[in-house]
Amino acid sequence: MSPLSSFCLLLFACAACAGADATDILAPAAPSKPAAAHEPVSWRVKYTLGPGDTMDIDLYGRQGMKREKLFVEPDGSISYLQATDVHADGLTFEELRAKLEEVLSQYYKRPRVLIAPLELRSKKYFIVGKAVDNGAFVMDRPTTLVEALARSKGLETGLVENRYAELADLSRSFLVRNGRRVPVDFEALFQKGDLSQNIQIEPNDYIYIALSRTSDIYLYGEVERPGVQAFTPHLTVMATVTARGGYTPGAWREKVLVVRGSLTHPQVFSVNTNAILKGRQRDFELQPNDIVYVSGRPWLFADEVLDSAVSSFLQAATSTWASDNVPALITRPILPQISNAVNLQ
Q1: Which domain holds residue 307?
Q2: What does the pLDDT read at residue 32?
């Protein structure tokens, strides 16, 4: 199936997903940079070996020296004739050939090593969440984001209110690369056909497809039991904090951050829970999928703690699957700066 055909199929599957209402966003983040601004994918130009790559190796002009289906071991080494446990992980085929010739030159006169690649399986990307197939996928060829989701058989559907609908929330779906969230707009790509967002996937990318139509509140930071709280009508910030065991001693209560809407263009609010407890301010009413974050230190502007808030959400969103399969995903700032939050006095 061609990339264009794959895109068309996914575009059709995603058409019913609900998008964020931009008119409701009071403190928008900076617009995402187009995908063309991302750094080039170097592995497609200079392939480096890794565990699982398989090859035939032979010595030119010598009989009986061919060894078939040799593979790079999990520890990154490969063995051929007297050249045992040669470190191959991270080397190109040419660099491995030179290394083998260097070792074998102690046993043969001017050896010329021939390497024939068979299967290249060391490069992988990961899809978790509401895709039909989750897990690790081998990068046996250059792959775009649309093609990656097509290989996972598209977005998951289910029965909602007696009809089948997509279960993916594209506004909260994300891609993590080298510990950072890549600014890809899933809604623009799959709902509007913006192919500038159809970036090339790189090895070890993590694609998370968020669940839509949930009725949960996500509470993280300095509370006794951070995690997911079921949404009920008229649920407030203080009711949520109380339901999760209350604040820890180090909680900064004067400014509790509420993040609402998409990860690409979030809306943020600052809630003074000290004022609420003293009766000077009404409690803040939450909406489904709000992220509530209680900082352990004072802050003035929302961008000082926004990364921590959303990073906690992303880590929790992927933890069920990733804890058994992949290393920590979010290690660096993942959102553009927001100048301020909406202060509720």
Answers
A1: 216-344
A2: 44
